[in-house]
Amino acid sequence: MTEKKKICVVTGTRAEYGLLFWLMNEIEKSESLELQIVVTGMHLSPEFGLTYQQIEQDGFTIDKKVEMLLSSDTEVGISKSIGLGIIGFSDALSELKPNLLVVLGDRFEILSAVVAAMVDKIPVAHLHGGELTEGAVDEAIRHSITKMSHLHFTATKEYRNRVVQMGEQPHRVFNVGAAGIDNIKKLKLLSKEDFEKSINFKLGKKNLLVTFHPVTLEVSTTKKQFGNLLTSLEQFDNIKIVFTKANADTDGRIINEMIDKFVSEHQKSSVAFTSLGQLRYLSALQFIDGVVGNSSSGLLEVPSFSIGTINIGDRQRGRIRAGSVIDCDPTVDSITAAIDRLFSNTFRESLKNIENPYGNGGTAEKIIAILQGYPLDGILKKNFHDQVTFVKET
Length: 394
Prior knowledge:
Radius of gyration: 21 Å
Largest sheet: 7 strands, parallel
Number of strands: 13
Shape: globular
CATH superfamily of the largest domain: Glycogen Phosphorylase B
Mean pLDDT: 92
Strand order of the largest sheet: 3-2-1-4-5-6-7
Structural class: alpha/beta
Distance between the termini: 62 Å
CATH architecture of the largest domain: 3-Layer(aba) Sandwich
């Protein structure tokens, strides 16, 4: 009997796990693959809801827990967390000895895992490479992970081309669509009544979901930008607001404290959650008018629900977006104008013809077919794929 390939999936946040769920499920069902799971980061933090418990409730076995998240959300704290992560992942991967490490995205927790895997000579498969978020440190982390990875699963043709442009061999780069679309297609979403019951909050005639994260390549802008968003929201007295809190990024606590204060002052019209989880988050998208903030989800998953996204500032600058996305500056006037446009009849009519550029699902099945058949012998040695262009010197 052929020995199974050990596929180790790393997850550090609630959102990332939601994107990886169906792939993990397919790996576990495979007759030729063995699933290993390592959790880290926010999953292990009481402040962020100890979300590793959800992974266990979903029926998965966690093989290793890598503690790396310090209580500080400063630049120094994040840097130290990366170092602790490398130490922890070195031990975990040395014990698990996977044949392949699977990671998604661009967070600092994943950087730690991939650095440890590179030194330990473990090949890496990376999801969602080639994307641009020019306002966040995630941009550099994502591209760094790409260069340390050996198989690449991108969300669009353009992103695949960009990974190849970075020197990766074309036969190792696969356009499979966005992982989050699988959740939309496969999860049985909650009815409006069950969703309202699950959040203990009644929606109104107009509803917004707000999810905002720090712009990590800007200095001390978080409080002002998010304050402008809250000031803008206060100008609309007939809108119900559901907040999801920020990740463990630099200055994330500033946002979360401001959310708590806003909700305490607007208890009838707003509610906040550390984590909605994938089921409640996607269920909410059925019943709200739009998502406001700067989360990647507003560009990747939200267009599939034919609702609008207000994308504030530069955090997602460079990402491919559907026609349902309204870009605005992080100022009160610009955000207010964007909200007015979101609710306008002209914009709402345009949503009927929106197509999501990130695909129609089936991502997990596409990836699993490749993982099952792709030979890993000799994959560690990479040749740079040159695309020679000549630029005239100035």
